[in-house]
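note to self: dont lose this again. the chain is below, predicted strucutre after it. 335 aa total, dont forget to put it in the shared folder this time
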Amino acid sequence: MTQQRRASMADVAELAGVSTQTVSRVANGSPRVDPVTRTRVEAAMAQAGYRVHRAARALRTGRTGVVGAVVSTLATVGNSMLLEAVVDEASARGYAVAVARIGEGGPAEAFERLRDQGVDGAIVVNEASALLRQSELPTDLRLAVVDSPPDDRYAGVETAHAAGSAAATAHLRELGHRVIAHIAGPESSYAAAERERGWRETLVAAGLQPGALLRGAWDSASGYRAGLELLANLDASDPVTAVVVANDQMALGVLRAASELGILVPEQLSVVGFDDVADAANFTPALTTVRQRFDLLGQRAVAAVLDGAEAGSRAVIEAPLVVRGSTAAPFVQPA
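---
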């Protein structure tokens, strides 16, 4: 039986109507290719059954075609969505992603596992960034860290958490709410701290006393518990009429707590989340929330590693407010 010949760059170039140099640039993930041409070459690669030989490319370019991702957990929706965005962008550039989870050995062990796989750089995902602050970082790996305070050791990428939370709080204030509570994320989280800051500073600037501050763990169960605690005093003389919740999963828990206590949303309580997960529009009622652009975060993080962003640089992604049915003007009891 005759073995089928492996497709070559010349075969792909002939199919796509381009030079072998252009095919090589596409295969090596070079940004110096017109998007239309890149699409045509990739289609020709698929048609010809052409496969990039990663070992050969590593010898030729000094790059292995693998990007590392350091995570502390994938149990939270935000971490999972960001990792998916990183994989999508890396794949679009012809790169694979190797994932290392931080365990008992801390960040150093995770970075060492990635070194063993010859990654071309590493992206530290969300919650894992908190573990870097007191850690010695590798000097031989290009790093991009998502959601971390400014640090001259690596490039930073983050959502405009404080601005997004401020917009959510201002929306509630403009509706007429005066007592606006906040259910924050974990104390160790940079994103949670920034969202809390946006809530607090907006109220103080408006001359309003911040309402109750409770804390959850990003999951709906902790949001439910915090919601029960918050709403236990809803009938007080100056009651909470609105709450800014640090993510959509916890906001879902608050909606459940309100439902069980017979509190109508938004008639008696307005609720705002953060993230705009795919299900937010299908909550009951549909959730007003701040949209976090995970796709852009993934794109910027991968670009920071592969295109050589300077250590200490920061890319900030805007987070727009999406108004839906879970917010309204506070109900006024007729005299």
